[in-house]
Every structure is written in C-alpha cells, then in structure tokens.
Amino acid sequence: MVSAYAPGKAILFGEHAVVYGHPAIAVAISKGVTVTLSKSDSWSVENRPLSPSRHPHINWLIEKNCVTDKPMSIKISSGLFPAAGQGSSAALSVAMQLALSRSEGLPSNPIEAALFAHQAEAHAQSGLASPTDTATSSMGGCVVVSNDLKGTAERTFQATLEVPGGTRRWDVGPVSLQTEEEPPVLVLGYSGTPSQTGKMVSMVAALISGDEDRKRDLDSIGELTLMGLVALRSGAWEAVGMTMDACHDKLRSLALSTPMLENLISAVRPHSLGAKLTGSGGGGCMMALTYDADRVAQSIEMAGGKAMITPFFSDGARIIEP
Ligand code: MEV
Description:
The protein is α+β, with helices and mostly antiparallel strands and about 325 residues long. It has two domains: about 1-180, Ribosomal Protein S5, domain 2, CATH 3.30.230.10; about 185-310, Alpha-Beta Plaits (2-Layer Sandwich). It has nine helices and 13 strands. The protein has helices at about 55-65, 90-105, 110-125, 130-140, 195-210, 210-235, 235-255, 260-270, 295-300, and strands spanning about 1-15, 25-40, 45, 50, 70-80, 140-145, 155-165, 165-175, 185-190, 275-280, 285-290, 305-310, 320. The strands form two sheets. Strands 1, 2, 3, 4, 5, 6, 7, 8 and 13 form a nine-stranded mixed sheet that branches. A four-stranded antiparallel sheet has the order 10-11-9-12. (R)-mevalonate (MEV) binds near residues 11, 87 and 130.
C-alpha cells in the first residue's frame, strides 16, 4: 500500500492572467488531498470502476506512467471544499503522481510530480492550464509562476504546454520572505457554489478576444502581481492586502465574481488587510489576509459562507511513510 498527500492552494495574485504568461503568486494551504493505492484485480476509485470521464486526471496519469496493466484500488480523502478554487484537482493529480512513482519503486520527485500533474490538469481543462496550482501543491510555501521571472525569483523548473498556435512556457520559483515578524494568516470563505475552472478559463478567453478593455484588465493583474511580489518580499503586509483588493477589482471587471463572493468580501473587509476571490471564480472561494482570523471566519459564516483558516505557509506534497 502507498499513500501520498498534496496540499491545496490559494492564489494571492494573478489568477487567469497567468494562463497568458503574466505572473501569479500562490501559497500552499494547510489542507489537501491524500491518495492511497493498493494492489487489486482491476482499477477502481472508491470501490467503483475507474471511469475516464469521472476521473480524467487519474486516468491520464495512469496512462502516461504506463501502468494500465498494474491495476490498483485508489482511495481518496480530501480536506478541501470540492470544486472551490482551492486546487483540489491539482492536489489530487500531484498526490496520485507521487503515489504512482512510489508504487513503481521510484524516488519521489516533487518537480516531476508537478510537471505530470500540470499536463493532467491541462488535459482535463480543455487544453489550457497554467502550472500554478500543481507547482504550488508540489513545492509548498509561496510560489511565483511567470513566462519570465526577470530576475524576480530563482527558477526551480520550467513547465511547457502545447496549445493551438505554439508552445507556452512558464518559469516556476519559490518566493522567500525577508521578514522577522509572524506573517498574517489567510482565511478562505467558500461561497457554496462550485467553480468550474475549464469553463471560466474559456469564458475569459472569449471575453478578451473581443474586448480590449478586458484584455487590459488581465495586463493590469500582471502589473499588480509584480507589485505584490515586492510587498511580500519585504513583509509589507498592508501593501500586500491593498494589492489583493486591487486584483479583486480587476477580476470583478472580468465578470469572475458573484453576488455571494461580493457579500463575503464585504463582510470581511473591515477586519482584513485585503480580500479577493481566489482561483477561477464564478463561485468557489474568496480569501482574506488578516491578523484577526477568528473574527474574519465568524464574519464569513455569518454572511452564509464556510470558513477555513490557514497559516501563510504550509508544506508541499509528500509520501506518507507507513
Ligand atoms: C485556477 O486555480 C487558476 C487559473 O488561473 C487557471 C490556471 O492557472 O490554469 C484560473
């Protein structure tokens, strides 16, 4: 039996814009997905036959690892809200890849897991996905992804994706903070409505192809992300919060917010340094950066959402040793 764990993620700045090569910054959160593999007579997920349409990520990874003839029973347990912009499919893919490698007797390699999981995400997301969620889940901590890190961070690896019209490239590196102080915490608020990443990515693609103003919103998110990176590096948390607010305004212009996300964000703003939707939007989660986590969590619950408190830093993916 082999088990692997991979955390979910929260995007501080840059969702959607990163699909087009702009930078994004994300952190691993303290909850995630555990995958357990045991030898069996046939492939199954939670005791039901493996279905490529229900589990496209898992099916893709089994095929790419050339292990279709080594059937296993797959058990999945998740501490994440489902389809909520917390990177549950990325965490599932990363944990699955680590567990598959270990079951083949190979050393666990977080970069390889990130690369395989990114391709699995792209496959399931109609061909368009940045490596943000999968890289953050694999590496843990705070991660920057961009088509050009321009000396802003050391590159740990490069991810590529074949898309109609060519190859997209993203550099991925860690963000290290130069601060002595304890960072504020993040509180995520689930709006209760699922967020469909593939659909929202396609919606943004359609929106920017016919509207220069909306394309400029994506460019502005890229510029704000670079400002957010400088603020983060120096531990200027108020500036980090203000940049989150500014990113949210741009995401709202791109029609990615919902009335419930707006309610939750308004409810937490008086007790937060900053708040925004996180992930693909159209539902899913918002998040707040705050020194008053209990108050923010309470405000989210009172406004009808579900709250999850997570420290600013959480570890990345790992094999769970028996
Ligand atoms: C989803 O968590 C983040 C998006 O930017 C999509 C992606 O990066 O692939 C919306």
